[in-house]
Structure formats: structure tokens, C-alpha cells
Write a structure and sequence with these properties.
The chain is an alpha/beta fold. It is about 60% helix and about 10% strand.
Length: about 260
């Protein structure tokens, strides 16, 4: 097998990056490396959101966004489902009624099984109902209308919006705000962040969505993966700084290396 010229550096960078991440994951999993993430107020507020629903005797709503589990939106959706697992654990712990609304058909059975399993692991399988996870519509506007209608009908106490969002973000968030619902938004959708910031109590942005699963679970392997990725980022930053310096001195060494 021959590596195409121009991709040699990228290939070896991928190999080294993968090795570093796996190595740091193993160190963390074995307890040889303690990984501590900075506090994220919005994720800490998830327990408050579920507790509020319990105190008010009203449901907590969760949406894993508009994305699918295939394609470019998969990372956002899978990250949202990790958060859903944690929220389900909290709902079982506090005996809060959970409502999950789904847009994409592929996500529906996965979310169903995830919630059912989480309730069973908490020794509360009876808390799972057939209408706990609801498929609304694959149409973007119809989904937004369905979620808004459900929020008004059920008078949800808290709403957690995680994953990929588009134009309907403001509609859903503003509807929740008008009901006095406590809202936590967790998204990497740059264009929708301003709307969530304006309408939600807590907004978690960018890479924090992908780190949320490790943050709330405390899983050592996941925490190690985040630490490994940070090591790669530091290495890339070092390459950028080195490239800037040597280019300023009239050398194309780093540029030639990157294009090999």
C-alpha cells in the first residue's frame, strides 16, 4: 500500500494522535492519571432541573436535537444520547416523570432502549412507560410544533435541549421561556447559540457538548480520551507557533513537512 503524496504527514499525524489518545485513556482507566475537568455550570444544573420537576410534580422534557445517528450530525446526536442516559438516571433517582421527544426515526429505537435500560439499572423498570419516548415527526417544522404543543399540554417544569439544532431552536426555547420552564441548552450549532443564550437559563456551547458524557458519567476512559485530545491540541498549537517562527525567518521547513 502506498500513501498518496501530500497525505503522508496527515497519515502519520493520525496514527500518532490515535496512539496518544489510547495511551492516555489506558493511563486514566488504570488510575495512573487523574483527569479533572473544569466545572461546567450548565451540566451541574441538570440535577437542579430534574429536582425542580419533582418538586413541582410536573414532567421534565428532553430533546436529543434534530440530528441522526448517521452522517455529519451523528456526533452531536450520540453526545446528546449520553446526556439523556444521565438525565434518565436522575429522573429515576428523584421519581420525576421524563418525556423524550424524537425527530429522526433512526434515533427513536435507540433512545427507547437507552431510557428503558437506564430505568432498569436504577431498579425502577416500572417507571418506564410506552409514551416516555415519543416520535414526533421527521419534518423540522412539524417536530417543533409537536414539541411546543407537548410543552404546553404537559406544562413541563424543565426542558433540556441537547444536540444539533437549526431554525426551530428559537421557537422551542421561546415557548419554554413563556411557560416559565427552566431550560438547559447544550449544542454545538453555532448559529443557534445566540437564541439559546437569550431564551434559556443555561447554555452549554461547542466542544462542551462532546465532553458532557464524560463529565456527567465520570467514566475514567472517557475522561482520558478528553485529556488525550487536549494533548493533541497542544501539539498542533506548537506546530503552528513553530511554523510561524521559522516562516518569519525565511524557512519553509514546516510548510514542506505538512505538504509531504
Amino acid at each position: 500500500m502506498k500513501i498518496i503524496p501530500g497525505n503522508i504527514f496527515g497519515f502519520w499525524l493520525f496514527v500518532v494522535a490515535s496512539a496518544v489518545i489510547v495511551y492516555v485513556m489506558n493511563l486514566s482507566e488504570k488510575g495512573k492519571l487523574k483527569v479533572t475537568l473544569r466545572p461546567i455550570a450548565g451540566l451541574d444544573a441538570l440535577e437542579e432541573a430534574v429536582g425542580r420537576a419533582t418538586e413541582m410534580g410536573r414532567p421534565v422534557h428532553f430533546s436529543p436535537g434534530l440530528g441522526d445517528i448517521i452522517g455529519t450530525s451523528a456526533p452531536d446526536t450520540l453526545a446528546a444520547l449520553q446526556i439523556l442516559s444521565y438525565v434518565t438516571d436522575l429522573s429515576a433517582k428523584y421519581d420525576a416523570r421524563l418525556l423524550v421527544t424524537i425527530r429522526m426515526p433512526n434515533v427513536f429505537p435507540l433512545a427507547q432502549e437507552l431510557v428503558r435500560t437506564a430505568y432498569s439499572m436504577a431498579n425502577k423498570p416500572q417507571s418506564y412507560k410506552e409514551d416516555t419516548v415519543r416520535y414526533v415527526s421527521s419534518d423540522q417544522d412539524a417536530y417543533a410544533a409537536g414539541v411546543i404543543g407537548l410543552m404546553h399540554q404537559e406544562k413541563v417544569a424543565s426542558s433540556i435541549l441537547a444536540g444539533l439544532y437549526m431554525g426551530e431552536a428559537l421557537l422551542i426555547a421561546e415557548s419554554g421561556a413563556s411557560l416559565g420552564t427552566m431550560q438547559v441548552a447544550i449544542t454545538a450549532s453555532i448559529t443557534q447559540i445566540p437564541f439559546f443564550v437569550a431564551a434559556c437559563d443555561y447554555t452549554i456551547i461547542g466542544e462542551e457538548l462532546y465532553a458532557a458524557g464524560a463529565y456527567v458519567s465520570g467514566n475514567k476512559a472517557r475522561l482520558g480520551a478528553i485529556a488525550g485530545q487536549d494533548c493533541i491540541k497542544l501539539a498542533v498549537m506548537a506546530i503552528i507557533v513553530l511554523g510561524t517562527i521559522v516562516t518569519s525567518l525565511g524557512s519553509n521547513f514546516v510548510q514542506d513537512l505538512l505538504t509531504k
